[in-house]
Amino acid sequence: MTDASRSAAHSFIADSADAPALAATAPDALERLILHDAFGDAADSADGDAAPASSGDASAGDVLVLGDDTGALTLGTLQHAAAARVIVRCGAVDAAQRVRVAADQAGPEVAGRVVVVGLDTDLPGGAELVPASVGPRITTALGRLPKSLAELDLLARGTAAIAADGARLVLGGNQKHMARSMNDVLAGAFENVRGGFGKGKHRCLIATGPIAGAAAHEAQRQEVLGVGMLTGFGGVFSGAKPDRGGSALADQAIRWLTARSERAAGAENGGGADGAAPARVLDLGCGNGLVSLRLLHAAATKHGPGAAKRGDKARDGGAAALDVTATDHQIDAVRSAESTLARYRDRARVTWDDAASQVEDASMDLVLLNPPFHEGARIDMTLVQGLLDAAQRVLVDSGELLFVHNSHLRYRPALEARFASVNELHRDRMFTVLRAVK
């Protein structure tokens, strides 16, 4: 792709209100290699007239774009494939929103060919990549290699399940992060797997011949101390394992719920306000749903397995009133949490959202936050800023944030800049839990 054609394809960005977010839509070196291996010489030509590589005919059906963070792969695909539709499955909701805006601003003809999973469709269920209602028939799929083998397995098997005969999957990455085990994972869903020609530090893996009837991606599952079953789809953080930071946060959340219930009971006994109003809790960045699961279980058993020994009984037979919203920007996390919290559908909802944008201001009594702090292998403490802003926005006056972080990091100043008071509830060698009051 020449500079001239790239400029034409992305000329809509300059006048966009979202220009800063969309400025990265020109493909980088890896994305150019992925497009080349997916569409052949057409991806290098100025006009896109050259025929796609013979091993895959993108014009015969839909093209699936996987994990496009900026819109570059989607716009490149639209330019070089004659597909009826380009179906885009992004791992993060903010990436999906960028792709949708980029397609819309490229004009109605382009916008009409793009289907963004989760925005233009329902979220997929189970191990699906694309909801069955979309009716996909994939001839070419392309994207970046994911970080985890579990996520790669989800992408490979999910693609094979909706692929036409002769379809191929092209996934590119940095060669120093690639391993033979990735080929083995792809071979579970495709008959032929090979490495493409490397360029610079990048290379693509090319899988052809989707295996008919290949088993679907199997989510990880693990029982958590009699509390319930954790589920981990694809690349969700910690898979189906309880992470120690989340466990520390859940401990403090249960203590918060116990204290709230005791205050409510005291108010009722003293003739005060009715204490039956549900506690409104936002699990911000819920991951596999561990923290919400433990809190919901504690509420259902009046604050955990030790409640019966304490003689702690609720008026409604042991259940404390609780209304939980669990949200995450990663699609695999949302699907994992939906499965983890399935038994509590009457009091918990799970949403695919960026920094609680769907949550009303001043609508939550408690926010639980176990934030990310890595961008790749690099520590980036700025990742939490938008989440802290969101927590402050959605809390009622005197509402509380419970925030867990690695003990060697210093987040307290960021909380003190946003909240009326901050104190430490727990600290050990690994993790610290802070309480902030609005």
Automatic annotation (TrEMBL):
Pfam families: MTS (PF05175). Its EC number is 2.1.1.172. The lineage of its organism: Bacteria, Bacillati, Actinomycetota, Actinomycetes, Micrococcales. It is an enzyme of class 2 (transferase). This is 16S rRNA (Guanine1207-N2)-methyltransferase. The keyword Methyltransferase applies. InterPro entries: DNA_methylase_N6_adenine_CS, RsmC/RlmG, SAM-dependent_MTases_sf, Small_mtfrase_dom. Residues 322-435 form the Methyltransferase small domain. One of its GO terms (molecular function) is 16S rRNA (guanine(1207)-N(2))-methyltransferase activity. Keywords: Cytoplasm, Methyltransferase, rRNA processing, Transferase. SUPFAM superfamilies: S-adenosyl-L-methionine-dependent methyltransferases.
